[in-house]
Write a structure and sequence with these properties.
Blueprint (H helix, E strand, L loop, with lengths): L1 H21 L4 H13 L3 E2 H8 L3 H14 L2 E5 L6 E5 L3 H30 L11 H27 L5 H12 L6 H7 L2
Antiparallel strand pairs: 1-3, 2-3
Helix pairs in contact: 1-2, 2-4, 3-4, 5-6
Length: 190
């Protein structure tokens, strides 16, 4: 049975690593997280290195990033000088942290760039009539800015500290096609 468990854990680690790569996260970082999550046990850097067959530097960088993302925490044991790491086990908390970090690293800088680009072509008083091509450009850019800001507001409700937004959205999307479960759609998602 132990062999089956190890094989299943290794497959989960591999699958999570592939998904992380598709999301733009280093494969090793995703695999370290997957190992900590699926085992559910605190592990020291040496244990992680041995299990994943990675270097100390790679393990340390991945763990530091995971701690920064808020999906792994450091844990100390009395009488042991080693530092142990444990992954967040609540999947809703985990995905809120991931969404929050992705917003901070990807969407926020993009929104800032869109505003900078918009400032380059903003019509200023006293310039005379606006060029129609420039006006079209600015309308398209304004539509993109509005879309990004709307997505940010939606995401903010998903990553709220209570996390109810993400769970409610998941329930609504899961039951939207079922007319027999109207309770979710009619207000139980508070």
């Amino acid at each position: 049975m132990a062999d089956a468990l190890t094989t299943a854990q290794d497959r989960f680690v591999s699958t999570w690593g592939q998904m992380g790569s598709a999301w733009g996260i280093s494969r090793t970082m995703a695999e370290v997280h997957a190992l900590l999550y699926i085992t559910g046990q605190p592990m020291c850097t040496d244990d992680i290195m041995e299990r994943l067959q990675i270097s100390r530097g790679n393990a340390s960088m991945s763990l530091r990033s995971l701690v920064d993302w808020g999906v792994v925490e450091r844990e100390h044991r009395r009488g042991d000088r080693k530092e142990y790491f444990v992954a967040e086990q609540d999947v809703w908390v985990l995905f809120r942290a991931i969404v929050r970090e992705r917003m901070k690293r990807e969407v926020d800088p993009m929104r800032a760039s869109l505003y900078e680009i918009r400032d380059l072509t903003a019509h200023r008083p006293g310039q005379g009539a606006a060029d129609p091509q420039l006006a079209d450009h600015n309308r398209r850019l304004d539509a993109m800015i509005e879309f990004v800001e709307t997505m940010e507001k939606m995401s903010a409700s998903f990553v709220s500290p209570a996390g109810r937004g993400l769970q409610a959205a998941a329930r609504i999307l899961g039951f939207a096609g079922r007319s027999s479960d109207r309770s979710v759609l009619e207000g139980e998602t508070r």
